[in-house]
Amino acid sequence: MTTIIPASSFTALHIRLYEPQRLLKPWVQCIWTLEGCSHSKLQKTEKLYPDAGSSLTFKYEPDGIKAVFFHNKHTLYHSLSGCERRISIRFTPSGAHFLLGLEVQDLAGQDHCLAELSPLLWRQSLEQLVNRLAMTDFALHMKMIQTWLIQCLAKSESPDLRTGGIIHEIQNLASTPYDIAGKIGFTRRTLERKLKREVGVTPNQIVNFSRIHKARQLLLRTEMSLADVALHCGYLDQAHFNNAFRKATFESPGYYRHRKLSQISNPPF
Predict the structure, then answer these.
(1) Which residue in 53, 137, 226, 257 has its CB near the most CB atoms, within 10 A?
(2) In CATH, what number does 162-265 get?
(3) Do the Cβ atoms of 151 and 190 come closer than 8 Å?
């Protein structure tokens, strides 16, 4: 599987996180690199959580560089090795649609070779990019990949900037998705179609991702009781919270808090 955003335990592999160039910030959350060492035997496995975004990872394999796209809707386990070389772009929820023209709802759950996906608008330029990467130093590659993405943006249809605002409001959990849609003149069905096409998930899935994300933060950064965390994240009661959290993360809120705080106290180096 393609990594989303590296978890804290991956720090031991010397992964580096970067902000995207200014023009890409509406569409790219972050970029991370793993330069890799052929002699390294270190391997780390972590649990990674969906946020409605997707990833494009350039994998440096013995038979060449491969651009792999991944969009997920579920929590997954992922392992990284210190001998691997990777550059990964983590898109915002609508980033892959507007930068690459992808209909991500049909691509969820598995890796896809980007060169085999439609539309073909950027296929030739992708092949040219990969060829240039193979002939230049790794230190220059992140800048080259971002330049390519900016070129893709220039060729794409005019992005609907309302999508980012809608998603941001939904993620803030301030009101229901359909209240938000009503404020901007969308019907319930229009909102659902728009997000399915551009983001690949439903409004309620974004709400669920956001609740779990907020709960995970509160469990680690506060001493709130589980009942209070449930209330702050919009769950009906602690039982509802426990069931939703376990379904999304494969563990109870209490165990998650214990496990993560133990990692912080005993960092995996």
Answers:
(1) 53
(2) 1.10.10.60
(3) no
pLDDT confidence of residue 122 = 75
Phi, psi (degrees; rounded to nearest 5) at 90: -100, 110
CB 77 within 8 A of CB 22: no
pLDDT on residue 227: 97
Residues 6+ apart with CB under 8 A from 85: 34, 35, 36, 59, 60, 138
Q: How far apart are CA 119 and CA 191, in angstroms?
A: 24
Nearest to 209 by CA among 27, 32, 71, 33: 71
CA dihedral 234, 213, 159, 112 (to 10 degrees): -130
Sole residue written with tokens 């214990």: 258
> Where in the chain are the domains?
8-155, 162-265
Q: Write down the pTM of the prediction.
A: 0.88
Mean pLDDT of successive 10-residue stretches along the chain, which has 269 residues: 51 84 94 84 84 94 94 88 92 91 85 79 86 96 96 81 85 87 86 91 94 95 95 96 97 94 66
State residue 149 phi and psi, 5-degree precision: -65, -40
CA gap 41, 76 in Å, rounded: 23
Rounded to 10 degrees, the C-alpha dihedral 78/82/85/87 comes to 50
